[in-house]
Amino acid sequence: MPTDANNLSQMPSSFARADFPSDFVWGCSTSSFQIEGGATVDGRTPSIWDHFCQTPGKIRDASNAEIACDHYHRWPEDLDLAKQIGMNAYRFSIAWTRIFPDVSGVPNQAGLDFYSRLVDGMLARGLDPWATLYHWDLPQYLQEIGGWENRATIDAYLVYVDTVTRHLGDRIQNWITHNEPWCTAMHGNWDGMHAPGQKNFKAALLVAHHVMLSHGLAVPIIRKNVAHAKVGIALSLHPLRPASSSETDLAAMQRHDGLRNRWFLDPLFGRGYPIDILAHCANDLPTIRPSDMAAIATPIDFLGVNYYFPETIASAPDCPPLHTRLEEVAGRERTGFGWEVAPDGMRELLQRIANDYPAIPIYLTENGASYEDVMDADGSVQDCARRDYFIRHLASLQRAREAGVDVRGYFAWSLIDNFEWAEGYMRRFGLVYVDFQTQQRTMKQSGHWFRTFLRGAA
């Protein structure tokens, strides 16, 4: 896809790796379910996403992740690609059901050994491992006894965290407890877009609370098991705009912000859940024990921010419980996924966090774009729209740094094309193109640009 005139007008005039500190973290992110495959290999058992994929109508192309990118067998090649691009860090997630395949509580040594080999492979290539402990793939056997609605799942998660960090903590310093608890709770239990596919707002709030509580309780376990551990959480956050300047749309935007952003940020920083949302959702609130909020607010070492797009909010009295609606504004640049491309939204979001919350190191743990990639006759993939997306967003990130925001790293989503959850294989986010029939990997133009940039020649 060629760069259009509008894109060119927004491109930074000069841009180089040297504009960032020498110790800045440059990485790419992946997740276990989306790339590993090996669904029944070495003792792995189904997660809620395996079950969701088997439910008719849930995955747009009726596919599944039983093979995905076959990363379980091809991980050396994939790590080689990350090294070739010039990354110095690699963010990955661990599949809970590879570690605990059933309710017996007995760890699966084959699963632990796989991640041990994977981490050793990162270190051998000069890639600092960043481990995400939960990226949405709850064991199906736990879902069958209540999933994240069941407070006992917190205890199971803590056993899992303890086991993994004791086994790998001698080689991994940076740990992320959860990826995007909003998606776990709301997409999984409110709008039903993700596994387990419920449509129950009260359940979603309960899940959100239990996930955040499990995060807070996991932090001291990780620190106990890992010398010099750095522990954080990765939140999906969005800058917001009102659909109009009317009082009703402004109020709607505030309500949406309360659940979309503040519902997760505020308790992390010791403020409890937002009072305005507590009042608005009084009939749907979970039971909160006296010690819960203090546990959630256990200090963390960094905040992971996943930024993709801003949201435009309108008042919608017929859309309970928040009475808000997402508006799609015509004429704005969009990715192949339909997400608005707004590089300056990244700066705006980062400055908002820095202004509204206590000082904390921030890492962009995900940022990227899906486009309709096509392999040309010469075997190349000319994804210049994605290349330009990265250039413009990194320039925005640098402007945030210049404004005083303590941003210490950036992880592109994603290293390779993968199984994109409910979209199946219809969306491609990778710096590397994957032919899902042959599993051949081909670096895209965006990957080549990143390699040139990280070598200091862009």
Automatic annotation (TrEMBL):
Keyword annotations from UniProtKB, A to Z: Carbohydrate metabolism, Cellulose degradation, Glycosidase, Hydrolase, Polysaccharide degradation
GO CC entries: cytosol
E.C. number: 3.2.1.21
Xref: InterPro entries: GH (IPR017853), GH_1_N_CS (IPR033132), Glyco_hydro_1 (IPR001360), Glyco_hydro_1_AS (IPR018120), Glyco_hydro_1_beta-glucosidase (IPR017736)
PROSITE patterns cross-referenced by the UniProt entry: GLYCOSYL_HYDROL_F1_1 (PS00572), GLYCOSYL_HYDROL_F1_2 (PS00653)
Example GO biological process: cellulose catabolic process
NCBIfam families, A to Z: BGL
Pfam families, A to Z: Glyco_hydro_1 (PF00232)
Source species of the chain: Undibacterium fentianense
Residues the entry annotates as binding substrate: 34, 135, 179, 308, 413, 420-421
Catalytic reaction equation(s): Hydrolysis of terminal, non-reducing beta-D-glucosyl residues with release of beta-D-glucose
Residues at the active site: 180, 366
Protein name in UniProt: Beta-glucosidase
GO function term, MF aspect, one: beta-glucosidase activity
Family per similarity comment: Belongs to the glycosyl hydrolase 1 family.
